């Protein structure tokens, strides 16, 4: 009850000191005098970790970080970012980063490998994000992307909706994303990915839907038809998706623009290689091309489907660029197909379209290296590590093209994987090779990169038709030919038989550079990243916390409590921010 009184006090003080009206939620609370429980409780009396809960967690973490910086007399957190680029290496856990760094050095033949640096290794700030979903200890990309882009942790499989979401109600639990916040401030926005543009990570920037699998109309189950619009439709029919200035990735099929003559040279396996097709005969890519552009920056829209056409685009003249280069995901870069751009090339095109000189309001861009995850799921270690290398090139391109004084760059993963980097290989040993080849007395040669689980189990298990080694469990590695070992579809060994290797649940690292990057420090819940972007970018809920973003309600008003913490930078902004976060958008 004490905190409620403080709340009222804080509100009263702020109102007395400024003449503007308080936000609607606070008006309602004051008028009714009935605040009710701070959070909803479920039937067992536990707190429901809904949007309001996670908004408070995120804002409190921000508040805590700022107060610590103030006590240490640091003020770099105050620097504001005109532009924000967030790179997500899907599934890029710490062992993948370390192995990817060595892979880079060995691939480029610059030395042993271990001493190599990735472009983001040089970033000045790092922190660790706790990745669990509301309902899962080990998360998926939908729930984690929702946390990163909306500031609200949610359930496994949920896209842009909190844990209260419903299959039969498309408005319940809807959330706004960093892209909504950015567009409201006049910033340009874009999404680049190597996966389908409708896949979980990019989808969480623009869609609000019960389940990540509902990428096409044909995937929406009967009870949700007419209630939840599929993810591809949401990209084209609704903001923020239909206002994106850049949309680059795969996914011609869910967009209804299937390329019938697509060539597939290497056969990759796994669930992720299956795609949905539309049943409504709509070509959403063509519909996107015909969308009217509002605003004054010109209206040139361009749709490209090949690398060659992408590189021909005059990015300074194009206002809206869509590139869809593959029916499904873009092929693993280690086996790139004709006509497919690299992540670096897509990133360069995106920044070219988004950068609009000193008079613009800036931009927010997501770049996802989405296939690190999918390589791991199939135990394709080479394919996965090469994707890390490609992400590294894209980050370097962004560093080269942007002004570090005005651009916040974050590089992180949504979750980790059940991949291990193990044994005692000698310095400079091929990261994809055996760990103990230098020990001839060892009864079994094993690889430095192995998996706790996955389909690699079946490929390496001794069987009746192939000789067994002394362990009587695993095939000797020497039975695999050099061509097999070098193949992008070669699977490293997994010790537990699963059709699909699983994610890992440990924290992921966040690398940060540019204005606001010092807010990334210590260990925090993953949803905090949305508040870092919000605060640094003067957009969305945390905008209210800082007077330098010229919010009239907060301004310079401050009242000290006995703890010495300013009310205007604690409780009041948190309450003021909450209604701004919860989307009031109606479903189609
Ligand atoms: Zn995954």
TrEMBL record:
Cell compartment(s), UniProt: Cell membrane
Protein name: Alkaline phosphatase
Keyword list, A-Z: Cell membrane, Glycoprotein, GPI-anchor, Hydrolase, Lipoprotein, Magnesium, Membrane, Metal-binding, Signal, Zinc
GO MF terms held by the record: alkaline phosphatase activity; metal ion binding
Principal subcellular localization: membrane
Catalysed reactions listed for this entry: a phosphate monoester + H2O = an alcohol + phosphate
Organism field: Drosophila lebanonensis
Obligatory cofactor(s): Zn(2+); Mg(2+)
Annotated Gene Ontology cellular component terms: plasma membrane; side of membrane
Catalytic residues (positions): 141 (phosphoserine intermediate)
Signal peptide range: 1-16
Family statement: Belongs to the alkaline phosphatase family.
UniProt binding sites for Mg(2+): 90, 199, 201, 368
Membrane topology: Lipid-anchor; GPI-anchor
Cofactor-binding details, from the entry: Binds 2 Zn(2+) ions.
Enzyme Commission identifier(s): 3.1.3.1
Hydrolase is among the record's keywords: yes
CDD domains the UniProt entry points to: ALP
One family name in Pfam for this protein: Alk_phosphatase
SMART domains tied to this protein: alkPPc
Entry binding sites for Zn(2+): 90, 373, 377, 414-415, 503
């Amino acid at each position: 009850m004490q905190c409620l009184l403080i709340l009222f006090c804080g509100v009263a003080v702020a109102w007395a000191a400024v003449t503007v009206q308080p936000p609607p939620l606070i008006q309602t609370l004051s008028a009714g005098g009935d605040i009710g429980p701070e959070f909803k409780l479920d039937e067992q009396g536990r707190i429901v970790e809904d949007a309001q809960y996670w908004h408070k967690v995120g804002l409190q973490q921000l508040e805590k970080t700022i107060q610590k910086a103030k006590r240490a007399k640091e003020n770099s957190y105050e620097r504001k970012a005109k532009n924000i680029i967030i790179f997500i290496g899907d599934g890029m856990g710490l062992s993948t980063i370390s192995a990817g760094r060595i892979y880079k050095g060995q691939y480029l033949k610059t030395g042993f490998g271990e001493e190599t640096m990735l472009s983001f290794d040089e970033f000045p700030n790092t922190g660790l994000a706790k990745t669990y979903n509301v309902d899962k200890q080990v998360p998926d990309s939908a729930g984690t992307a929702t946390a990163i882009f909306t500031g609200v942790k949610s359930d496994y499989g949920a896209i842009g909706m909190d844990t209260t979401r419903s299959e039969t109600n498309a408005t319940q639990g809807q959330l706004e994303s960093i892209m909504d916040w950015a567009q409201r401030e006049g910033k340009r926005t874009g999404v680049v990915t190597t996966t389908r543009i409708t896949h979980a990570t990019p989808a969480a920037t623009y869609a609000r839907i019960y389940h990540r699998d509902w990428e096409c109309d044909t995937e929406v189950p009967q009870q949700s038809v007419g209630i939840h619009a599929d993810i591809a439709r949401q990209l084209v029919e609704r903001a923020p998706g239909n206002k994106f200035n850049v949309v680059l990735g795969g996914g011609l099929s869910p967009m209804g623009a299937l390329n019938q003559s697509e060539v597939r040279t290497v056969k990759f396996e796994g669930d992720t290689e299956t795609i949905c097709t539309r049943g409504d005969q709509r070509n959403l890519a063509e519909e996107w091309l015909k969308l009217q552009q509002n605003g004054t920056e010109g209206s040139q829209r361009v749709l490209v489907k090949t690398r060659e056409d992408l590189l021909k685009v005059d990015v300074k003249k194009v206002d809206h660029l869509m590139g869809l280069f593959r029916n499904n995901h873009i092929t693993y870069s280690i086996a790139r197909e004709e006509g497919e751009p690299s992540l670096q090339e897509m990133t360069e095109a995106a920044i070219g379209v988004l950068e609009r000189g000193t008079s613009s309001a800036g931009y927010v861009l997501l770049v996802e290296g989405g296939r690190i995850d999918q390589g791991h799921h199939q135990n394709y270690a080479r394919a996965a590590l090469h994707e890390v290398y490609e992400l590294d090139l894209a980050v370097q391109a962004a560093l080269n093209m942007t002004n570090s004084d005005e651009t916040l760059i974050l590089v992180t993963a949504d979750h980790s994987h059940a991949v291990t980097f193990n044994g005692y290989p000698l310095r400079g040993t091929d990261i994809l090779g055996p760990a103990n080849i230098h020990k001839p007395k060892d009864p079994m040669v094993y690889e430095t990169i192995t998996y706790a689980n996955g389909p690699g189990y079946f490929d390496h298990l001794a069987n009746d038709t192939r000789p067994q080694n002394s362990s009587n469990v695993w095939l000797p590695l020497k039975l695999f030919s050099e061509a097999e070992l070098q193949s992008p579809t070669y699977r490293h060994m997994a010790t537990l038989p699963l059709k699909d290797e699983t994610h890992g649940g440990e924290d992921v690292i966040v690398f940060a550079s540019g204005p606001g990057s010092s807010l990334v420090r210590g260990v925090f819940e993953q949803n905090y990243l949305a508040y870092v972007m919000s605060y640094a970018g003067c957009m969305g809920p945390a905008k209210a916390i800082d007077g330098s973003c010229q919010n009239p309600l907060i301004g310079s008003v401050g009242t000290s409590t006995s703890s010495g913490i300013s009310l205007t930078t604690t409780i009041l902004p948190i309450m003021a921010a909450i209604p701004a976060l919860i989307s009031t958008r109606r479903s189609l």
